[in-house]
Amino acid sequence: MLFAAGVPNTTQSTQETDINYGPIKSSFRINLEVITQARINDEKPVSFAPYMVALFVFGGTDHVTKAVAPRNAFQDGFSREWCLKAWAKVGAAPITRACLSDPKVRRELGDSEDDLDQKMRLIQDLNDRAVAGLNARGWNGSAFAGKIKERRAFLTQPISQPNTRTRQEDIAAAAATSTGARYHATGGGHLTSDDMFKSIEVGKRNAEAAQLEKEKKSRLEKMELEEECHGILYQLAEDDKDPNGKQLKRLLKWQEKKSTRVAKDLLVWNAICAEHEAYGTIDEIISALPSVKRWTQADEERLIWLRTAEVDMADTALGRKQAHEKRNLLMAARNMTADEQAEVLAAFSEANASQVIAEENA
Predict the structure, then answer these.
(1) Lowest-pLDDT range, 89-93, 109-113, 189-193?
(2) What are the C-alpha distances in Å from 25 to residues 12, 31, 70, 237, 335?
(3) I need a labelling partner for 285 at 20 to 30 A (CA). Which of 199, 200, 268, 299 fits?
(4) Structural domain boundaries enclosing 276
(5) Are 279 and 299 contained in the same domain?
């Protein structure tokens, strides 16, 4: 068995069966046109039931008009000849990886804001310096010059700046609509960019914030009702009267009880007071009765944080997974041999050196 490396940003150019769909669609349309025209000529309905799809795909006779769909679209598209053509065009058989020469597959400078884009810029910069150095010494350095294609900025101008809460809000909103909207929000950024992972977390925070805002509205309304009912109780005590029908409705709503008739409402109110032993002065009655859940400063701060706080990579699913892997590495280090520890340290040194070079050329 042979394995050939693929590319991460897969398009139809790298998928063999996508190429087979060309002849399939052509034959399918021929069958559809023949049967539709026959039904129109015979004044028959042209609304096809789902089972009729098989007729257009494999060909055959229409049971209504007896017209014949002449093509076998499936055979046309997946014949031995077309499969070999598709595999060869992609470079799967023989293994030439021909698809990598397709402009739809190749990365370009500026087509995303990720680590690979920075690495390509670093490669381009190092090549430019090497060529300039050779030319300065009288060599034909231009023979070694390479140029990575750079995407024209105006074609993919994003609507917000990368690595900001605004960008992540745009991506989170676009994810619920279409791929085109996401492309517009990111300027064509790849799904593996930091902003993509952060936008998922932003979406979760926005959902929690929306729920919290509903809770805030409900609590504030209940707090206002409670203040109103306290005023009713003080007024009743001052007037030395039983509550009237309108007052009873408000009092029962405060205690989350259903109001019906005045006489029954009064009995329900008295039962509530008896259940909670709400007797004595008005302050004692109010203290004894259940109070509503209040909207606190801590709740408001939580809501503001959900709506405005910047998202760190450590807050994302990827960040949490990386943190978990780091903890696993620390645990594994305790059982490593000296050679294994040296290998890990060498990997750290190499990573640090690459980071320094990238920062110097940023």
Answers:
(1) 189-193
(2) 15, 10, 14, 84, 60
(3) 299
(4) 202-315
(5) yes
